[in-house]
Write a structure and sequence with these properties.
Elements lengths: L1 E5 L2 E6 L1 H4 L22 E8 L7 E3 L5 E6 L2 E6 L3 E2 L1 E2 L7 E6 L5 E6 L6 E6 L6 E2 L8 E6 L5 E8 L7 E8 L2 E8 L10 E6 L5 E7 L17 E7 L5 E5 L5 E6 L5 E7 L8 E7 L5 E5 L20 E2 L5 E6 L2 E6 L5 E4 L1 E10 L19 E5 L5 E6 L2 E6 L6 E2 L8 E7 L5 E8 L3 E8 L6 E2 L6 E7 L5 E7 L14 E6 L6 E4 L3 E5 L5 E7 L8 E7 L6 E6 L4 E4 L5 E6 L2 E6 L6 E2 L10 E2 L9 E2 L1
Parallel strand pairs: 7-29, 45-49
Antiparallel strand pairs: 1-2, 1-51, 3-29, 4-5, 5-6, 6-8, 9-10, 10-11, 11-12, 13-14, 14-15, 15-16, 17-18, 18-19, 19-20, 21-22, 22-23, 23-24, 25-26, 26-27, 27-28, 30-31, 31-32, 32-33, 34-35, 35-36, 36-37, 38-39, 39-40, 40-41, 42-43, 43-44, 44-45, 46-47, 47-48, 48-50
Length: about 600
């Protein structure tokens, strides 16, 4: 039987892997989640507002109506303003409405089936139907092709960062998987790309892209320089060119119906404020001018998955633009620059689920640990060591009373414990913010620990070699939440367990652990880049040479080889999985893998996995 530890709890994987072919199923999903009807006590909250936040809008092709989003629902008003008519309702989040070229339909983004997809409904809000059916690469910012048969939308892609970038895909209004129009500049690209808009003749696609150097997103982007640019792609030839560039950036391209002008959002480059402003560009001469200077701040410096600024729209005669700013809707005349308010009033309700309330003792005499970490079972299976409240504890199995492992002074955290193979010693990291970290070794029976490292550092995941003579460990870099000092040589190291010189084996990698024969070290390394094979399980010899790749994974956050080398465990999307480790070849570690049998070892998720 295979056993795991996750958050100090043992999970039995059973004989599923040995049986051959049986794969772990998902939890019982007989009760399907309904976004608009979640469990719990519902209440209706009255809504009566004349202002809104971050509202996307569109103007009907006949120029008579405005459709807009507000707090996750869609509404319609006359072009001159007035009381809003509700088009959608419910707990689902609906946004970014766009009229079809004939005005008969409205495309919009909705999460009513669990994730953002493109939907179409009649212009009166009736007969909504789903166009795209993505359950992972979610979509937003739908834009109609002038023929009314296709929609372009931004499709979301992640790399090694949580938010990521986009591509522009084209979808038939009848459905289908779509066709790629604009590809990411690189599989490792982490920056924003989106906000599609077609030219009135249907020959070109406008879109925005973060144009700062490199693939890696950074938070301190300088908006005094160019962060975003508007690009134009020719649909027939695929030719792609930068159209609006320069300091202050350019986003949310919106061509006029007559095709002469391009409205967009950028920073005011004429003064020293660099405030967000509404611009128009003459597409023949390239001349730009500011129409309106008091827009709300755009999102150029940060991630903007749903768009850098809300949608705005031209009137059909190309004479004026309707937009949102400062909580209200406005209309600006393109020739004169005169601005008028478009008043609206939304009288509606919002459904809300009452949150559960619990009585909490804010000052109890005793506090239960809710997150024991780094659990490791002794080789003889009689005890477990784990961390809670910053200290290491040992507990006899199956139901012994926890006791403190060390008698060290109380001003340090004790982290990342690991037993020696004979069960006599435990190595761990001792950390203080002032003194940084050191590796310590303590008898498994407890007592005062002994420091074995000479230099402080950002140490993680120490392990004994099978013979107990060597320690392998990570040495990471600081500088984010911890001090930057002692960060110059990160990587995987080895050193004598009794203390002595450290030998650097790699300049990267994490979670090193020694093979049963003591001749090789397994560790997780970054893959060649991008989303595919983002992580690799590799092994090296004790000198850091003879690198071999044993497995790859897009999403595994922890990979661990069993002590005997016959099994491999990994964590993906909070669950722990196990599969046999073949003597050769390269495994694809994923919960959907079919190359070898796979079993899920957790029921409600797992963390801090280790083999017993």
């Amino acid at each position: 039987m295979l056993r795991f530890l996750a958050a100090a709890l043992a999970f039995a994987a059973g004989a599923t892997c040995a049986a051959g072919g049986t794969r772990a199923g998902a939890a019982d999903e007989t009760d399907q989640w309904n976004v608009n009807a979640p469990p719990g006590e519902h209440q209706e909250i009255p809504l009566d507002v004349t202002e809104g936040t971050w509202m996307s809008l569109d103007v009907s092709p006949d120029g008579e109506r405005i459709v807009f989003d507000l707090l996750g629902d869609l509404y319609q008003i006359p072009i001159e303003g007035g009381d809003a008519v509700s088009l959608t309702s419910g707990l689902a989040w609906d946004m970014q409405p766009r009229f079809s070229p004939d005005g008969a339909h409205i495309a919009f983004t909705s999460d009513r089936t669990g994730g953002d997809n493109v939907w179409i409904m009649n212009a009166d809000g009736s007969a909504p139907r789903q166009v795209t059916r993505e359950d992972f690469r979610l979509l937003n910012n739908a834009a109609w092709h002038p023929d009314g048969d296709f929609l372009a939308a931004r499709k979301h892609y992640t790399t090694r960062r949580s938010l990521g970038t986009g591509e522009i895909w084209l979808y038939s209004t009848s459905g289908g998987d779509g066709v790629q129009l604009v590809e990411r500049p690189d599989p490792a690209f982490q920056k924003e790309l989106g906000e599609p808009a077609f030219s009135p003749d249907g020959r070109h696609l406008y879109y925005t892209r973060n144009s700062t150097p490199g693939n890696v997103f950074i938070y301190h982007q300088d908006s005094n320089q160019e962060v975003f640019q508007i690009r134009r792609a020719a649909l027939a030839t695929g030719e792609d060119e930068a159209l609006v560039t320069g300091p202050g950036g350019a986003v949310r391209p919106t061509p006029s119906p007559d095709g002469r002008l391009l409205a967009f959002v950028g920073r005011d480059r004429e003064g020293d404020s660099f405030d967000t402003a509404l611009f128009v560009m003459d597409l023949e001469s390239g001349r730009e001018r500011i129409l309106y200077r008091d827009l709300d701040r755009d999102m150029q410096e940060t991630w903007a998955v749903q768009g850098v600024y809300p949608n705005f729209a031209w009137t059909p005669d190309s004479a004026s633009i309707v937009f949102w700013a400062g909580g209200g809707l406005h209309r600006v005349d393109v020739d004169s620059g005169s601005v008028s308010a478009v008043p609206f009033r939304v009288q509606d309700t919002r459904a809300a689920v009452k949150p559960p309330r619990f009585s909490v003792d804010v000052a109890p005499d005793q506090v239960a640990s809710r997150m024991p970490r780094f659990a490791r079972v002794a080789p003889d299976g009689d005890s477990v060591v784990f961390e809670a409240f910053g200290r290491l504890w040992v507990r006899g199995l199956p139901d012994g009373e926890p006791r403190r492992l060390t008698r060290d002074r109380e001003d340090a955290f004790e982290l990342f414990p690991a037993f020696s193979q004979d069960g006599d010693r435990i190595v761990f990291v001792r950390w203080t913010d002032a003194g940084l970290g050191h590796l310590h070794v303590v008898d498994a029976d407890g007592g005062r620990s002994r420091r074995v490292t000479d230099q402080p550092g950002h140490y993680r995941q120490p392990r004994f070699s099978p013979d107990g003579d060597t320690l392998v460990f990570e040495r990471a870099s600081g500088g984010y939440l911890t001090a930057l000092e002692w960060s110059l040589a990160p990587g995987v190291y080895r050193m004598p367990a009794s203390g002595g010189a450290m030998v650097r084996l790699t300049d990267g990698g994490r979670n090193p652990h020694v093979a049963a024969d003591g001749k090789r070290i397994y560790l997780t390394a970054d893959g060649p880049g991008g989303e595919q094979h983002a992580h690799e399980l590799i092994s090296i010899d004790l000198n850091g040479a003879d690198r071999r790749v044993h497995a790859t994974s897009n999403y595994a956050s922890r990979i661990e080889v069993a002590p005997g080398g016959r099994w491999i465990a990994f964590r993906e999307n909070y669950h722990v999985y196990v599969m046999p480790m073949p003597p050769g070849g390269k495994l694809d570690l994923t919960r959907d893998a079919g190359s070898v049998p796979l079993a899920r070892a957790t029921t409600a998720g797992g963390e801090f996995l280790s083999w017993v």
